[in-house]
Amino acid sequence: MRHQHRERFQPCRRPARRGRRLPRAAQRRVVVRRGLWGELAQFPIPRAEVRQRRIAAGWVLPMAGAPIERGAVLIGAHGRIQSIGPDHVVPRPPGVPASEFPDAALLPGLINTHTHLELTGFEGLVTDPEFPSWIRGLRQLKTTRTPDGYLQGARRGLADCYAAGVTTIADTGDSGSVIRVLAEAGGSGIAYQEVFGPHPAQAEDSLAGLQRRVQELSHLTSSRVRIGVSPHAPYTVSAALFRSVAAWSKEERLPLAVHAAESQEETEFLLAGSGPFAQAWRERNIPFPDSLGIGPMAWLSKHQVLSPLTLCIHAVQLGPGEIRLLADSGAAVAHCPRSNRAHGHGTAPIAAMIGAGVRVGLGTDSVVSIGRLDLLAEARMAGQQAGLSADQQLELCTIASARALNLEAEVGSLEPGKWADCTVIRLPHTGETPAERLLASSQDDVLRTYVGGKEVHRSE
Ligand SMILES: [Zn+2]
What we know:
Blueprint: H1 2-8, H2 24-28, E1 32-35, E2 38-42, E3 53-60, E4 68-75, E5 81-86, E6 98-108, E7 110-115, H3 131-142, H4 147-163, E8 166-173, H5 177-185, E9 188-195, H6 203-217, E10 225-231, H7 239-252, E11 256-260, H8 264-272, H9 276-283, H10 296-302, E12 310-314, H11 322-329, E13 332-335, H12 337-342, H13 350-355, E14 359-362, H14 367-370, H15 375-386, H16 390-396, H17 399-404, E15 422-426, H18 434-439, E16 446-451, E17 454-458
Parallel strand pairs: 3-6, 7-8, 8-9, 9-10, 11-12, 12-13, 13-14
Antiparallel strand pairs: 1-2, 3-4, 4-5, 6-15, 15-16, 16-17
Bound molecules: zinc ion.
């Protein structure tokens, strides 16, 4: 965790300027979910409703310094952290509501660097063991969902994130539903708009279509809800389209996410021009990508896709030299260990990536791959794979994930000036340190979740 320790104790930088707010009408709206999943549920009310509050807990884990026994946080009316420290030091302004959780830990809200919330509700519906046919099955399933179905799925997905202590979501999808839901809920995250197009002749039209879509959705963005782009993967997007999307994202400073170096089949396609993806391209008369014979990360680098704005999702199949390429480019990685295991892709070399200075965050991938999204389970698996301590496992799903998304000035740790995104988790009696006990908790132990000071989940 060399890279993380280097930055860990830097003084808090002032968060970036506030962006455009939602129109007044949207700020007041309370969104009600009904239908597909039964019970009515009220969605969090946007920023106008933030109240000043004080939260004390048996342990506070700021992830920017040592855990504080009997600590507290004071949240300002603006939704940012005003004060943090031992309980007896943090002010108790008169009239400010105060809650106490003596048997729980208060920590920064978890950050999921990769998921697909629009697919919520598709759990267990695609089971093909072979990855290329699994992808085809998922594509087929997606055609059965209406725009309203996507919106419902995204709403339930966001509510599930909050119930699991997750407060910032980096999501890829093509329906536009997740950015809508983040905006209406006053949430936090990056919605990467997906683009596909394996035939180089489609590249110009696909780029124009993506630009139109981003333009249409841009009124939903704010300082907390960002839009990005996601050319899907090297086996679904031509080199020409990759180059043009990457160039446009740099021009517009749009974050870019790409599924990369995920399966052996993808590597075989780029290294040897063979395997099931090659066969699918041949059947559709799509000309093979130029510059075959190199690994996926080298191929993306050759087409100028890797930059500090880039998030490489998975990065499992890395050949010699590709970790160095990633580190030198400044690109980050969304590590999704349980999805990689579910699909039999192998294990991403995250210890080596972190050692080389690559920003690595944690992601769940979609419910279709792994069922219930559980970021702490991802952290435990990453810890086993890479020999990480409990503290490092918690860092991975908080401040390290914030760094992977270039959001570390605003979220990922509890520091004065950052957004008051936090969660309160009951501590089981398994384990010695607070981090070990937290990692032994389950989603039923998540008592409260706050985004920008707003309570978005309460379990008891
Ligand atoms: Zn994915």
